[in-house]
Structures are given as C-alpha cells and as structure tokens.
Design brief:
- The chain is mostly helical.
- α1 runs antiparallel to α2, α1 packs antiparallel against α5 and α4 packs across α5.
- The two termini are 18 Å apart.
Amino acid sequence: MAATITIPICDKYLKEAKEFLQNSVQSSEKGWGAATEILKAMAAKEEKELRSHARLWDYVSALRRRYGDEEISTLWHKASLLHTNFYENWMPLDEVELAVNGVERFAEKLKGLMRTR
C-alpha cells in the first residue's frame, strides 16, 4: 500500500478520534487506526508491508533503534493502550484523550521522518 494512500487515512482517523473523545471505545478505535496507518505509510516508503501486530511492533522497534529515539516506542505504547481499550473499555476519558494526543505526536514524528528521507 502506498504511503500516499495511508497518510490521509491516518489524518481522517486522528480527526475522528478527537471528535469521538466522549466515546472511549470509538475514540480508541480511531486513535489506534491512525497510529497503524502512519506506521504503514512509513513502511511503505521503504517498500515494506506490515500485516500483523507482531510486524507493527518489530517495525516500531527498528525505527527506535535506527533513529535513536525512545519516544517512538513510548508513543506507540500509547497507541497500543488505545487498541486494548477498544476491546476492554477500561480507560477513563481523560486518559484516552492523553493517548490520542500521543498518537497525534507519533503521527507528526513519523511524517517528519518521512520528509527527511
């Protein structure tokens, strides 16, 4: 999948995650989706395809090591919490909002890295 396709999807999901902040489950689903789409966009720029959760995690770890930036992993963890919350619905809304903000930072960071490549 081309990066040019997944970046607009990321932006759409991120916008929706913010719009749905009063609905923990919906906001979590959209936040997780935004994070995975931007990660897939970064991988697509390298002609890689991420088709499983394990591959997503492996790629995040590779990016962290490549750029020496622990924040990549820290922000990804926030996205992963949203993924879990989509199924469990245990996060308070203010924590969901913090995690969605983390996903926004994650997307900005990866977009910046894509621009420099």
